[in-house]
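call fold(seq) -> tokens
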Amino acid sequence: MNRAADLDEIFLEPGGFFFGGPDTRVRTLLGSCVAMTLWHPQQRVGGIAHFMLPSRSRSRRDGEALDARYADEVIELFCRHVRELNTTAPDYEVKLFGGANMFPHMIRDDDCSGVSCRNVQAARRLVDENGFWLKAEHLGGVGHRALIFDLRDGVAYLRHGARRARWIIHE
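ret:
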């Protein structure tokens, strides 16, 4: 993770979305939310979204903007960028991170009624339904994750759990 002087560093808040070129590194923190990364290895472009829920509790109104807080709208945002670049979904590598059970004392790991499990299910389903290639995932479990996504090479650096946990590299 060498730091380059011309590299833009962005911190992505929950509900955030970013799509751009190889001059950017994006950081985010995850709990029950899921981060979806998308990267085109030949064009060296891609993006990341940090969604909080599988979908809205109501239908989107006419003219209402897509909202990256919701998994189903995140995939629509990504698909718009894919079409604008005259590329296709299978050209992209997708990586999924997060979806942790943040309340293990209240929700059993095998209980999929919690938001974390529903987020994981939605992410996997949407990637598959839209024809993207799922290259890697680090989902579920307990505890937070720190994620860095580097658009220079599509590599994701992940630290799960304790502050001194080692970084896991997802190439």
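The helical segments are 71-84, 115-129.
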